[in-house]
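FW: tagging you since you asked about this chain on Friday. Here's the raw sequence from the shared folder, copied in full. Didn't touch anything.
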Amino acid sequence: QVQLVESGGGMMQPGDFLRLTCIAYQLNLEYYGVAWFRQAPGKEREGLFCIGRGGVEMPYRDVLRGRSSVSRDNVKNAAYLDMNALKPDDTAVYYCAVRHSSCPTEEKSDFDYWGRGTQVTVSS
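HL: got it, structure written out here
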């Protein structure tokens, strides 16, 4: 059974650095584009980035630009979202999702599999 498992979330303070990890099981991540989404309380789930098979980063929006990056390690079957200078507005559940072969649009139905998410709470 294919699973995507996010980890690395937790209680953070403003200004902290955070690395989120997405590990794939029963799926060869090498052949997939990997995207990161987040959903803040009371808001729609929004796309952040997608990283293609070759490692090319495609941002969906500018909200994290300049203080975040995405990467992947196909040997470990993992993808990462690094965020610097965390803000309270970054409080959300963060999800990874994959699409075979490419990075699609931000449309959620375009993705093949989703993780269950990891909660990130930024508060002083």
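FW: Residues 48 and 111 are 14 Å apart (CA to CA).
HL: agreed, and The mean pLDDT is 94.
FW: great, closing this out.
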